[in-house]
């Protein structure tokens, strides 16, 4: 795969301008993105929890999808109309309240029209994933 076409700073500027509904606050940060992988952190908030005191599925799915979008943009450049065509998630264990959630995304295949990747979601400092995601994105002709 090629080197990154967008730096973290460029990704942040693009996302704040083009996708503010997902990246306008300070709860999600892009820690790294290199055209093949990305690491995002979602700071803990009680809004993340579902009844029973675990991190909610919608929180994890949204973070995983966003991490895939970030790694894809870092690989292809500022093509905002790339869209998710499939996302599959396996919840593996409880996400602990009070802990940030990390999303480690990796592109498995980058084609001209489709990109396939995976995301491991981690709670706090534990090395054991709380969820595993596979995802496919459609890349528009530009």
TrEMBL record:
It comes from the Bacteria. This is Uncharacterized domain 1-containing protein. GO terms for cellular component: cytosol. The chain crosses the membrane at residues 66-89. InterPro entries: HotDog_dom_sf, PAAI_dom, Thioestr_dom. The keyword Acyltransferase does not apply. Pfam families: 4HBT (PF03061). Keywords: Hydrolase, Membrane, Transmembrane, Transmembrane helix. CDD domains: PaaI_thioesterase. The keyword Transmembrane applies. It comes from Bradyrhizobium yuanmingense.
């Amino acid at each position: 795969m090629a080197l990154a076409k967008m730096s973290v700073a460029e990704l942040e500027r693009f996302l704040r301008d083009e996708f503010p509904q997902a990246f306008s606050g300070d709860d999600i940060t892009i820690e790294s993105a290199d055209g093949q992988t990305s690491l995002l952190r979602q700071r803990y908030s009680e809004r993340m929890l579902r009844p029973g005191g675990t991190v909610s599925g919608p929180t994890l799915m949204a973070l995983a999808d966003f991490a895939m979008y970030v790694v894809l943009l870092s690989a292809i450049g500022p093509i905002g109309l790339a869209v998710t065509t499939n996302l599959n998630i396996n919840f593996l264990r409880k996400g602990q309240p009070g802990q940030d959630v990390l999303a480690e995304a990796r592109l498995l295949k980058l084609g001209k029209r489709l990109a396939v990747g995976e995301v491991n979601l981690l709670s706090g400092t534990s090395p054991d994933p709380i969820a595993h995601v596979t995802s496919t994105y459609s890349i528009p002709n530009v």
